[in-house]
Amino acid sequence: MNCGIFNRNLGSAIIFIMWSVNYCLLVFISVLGVLQLAAAYNNFRGLLFFPRKIYCVCFAVVAIGFGLFAFFTWYNFNSFVVEGSQQTGSFVLSAAAGILFTLVFSSVINYRRLGAGHSEQDGLDALREITFFQAIRNHRGEKER
Predict the structure, then answer these.
(1) Is residue 24 part of a domain?
(2) What is the DSSP string of 34-75?
(3) CB neighbours (10 Å) of residue 89?
(4) For the chain, how many helices (H) and strands (E)?
(5) Considering the entire predicted model, what is its pTM?
(6) How many folded domains does the chain comprise?
(7) Going residue by residue through the chain (145 aa), what tens digit of pLDDT does each one get?
(8) Does residue 46 contact residue 52 with C-beta atoms inside 8 Å?
(9) Domain that holds residue 22
């Protein structure tokens, strides 16, 4: 029985898991920043984390800047090789989590602030006046009529 190979593979798995957690967290934070910047620029008040756009822009700059800075200073390119499919999977999972978090969190915190719950606009433009959950509810209500 060759325990050296097992220990080497276990060590590689632990390194990959640690890399993956760090990478996913940095992508998640950066995606939150990009979505807040896009929402502030396009005046999608239903997606904003803060009532004033300037706070959202500041949050976005800090989140994106931190994500990029941490990635390029933390990641040692010579010490560990990650397959393209592993990195793609980690990125897609983190980006989807960031989008889902933004939709849920912004709907919860903006529920009272954008309490009208009805928008004359359709599609993505409805997020200028209402939250994501309110838009879903309105869309389902229109389908039932």
Answers:
(1) yes
(2) HHHHHHHHTT-GGG-SSSSHHHHHHHHHHHHHHHHHHHHHH-
(3) 13
(4) 4, 0
(5) 0.81
(6) 1
(7) 555 544 556 666 777 777 788 889 999 999 999 999 999 999 998 899 999 999 999 999 999 999 999 888 876 655 666 677 888 888 999 999 999 999 999 999 988 877 665 666 777 777 888 888 888 887 766 655 5
(8) no
(9) 3-111
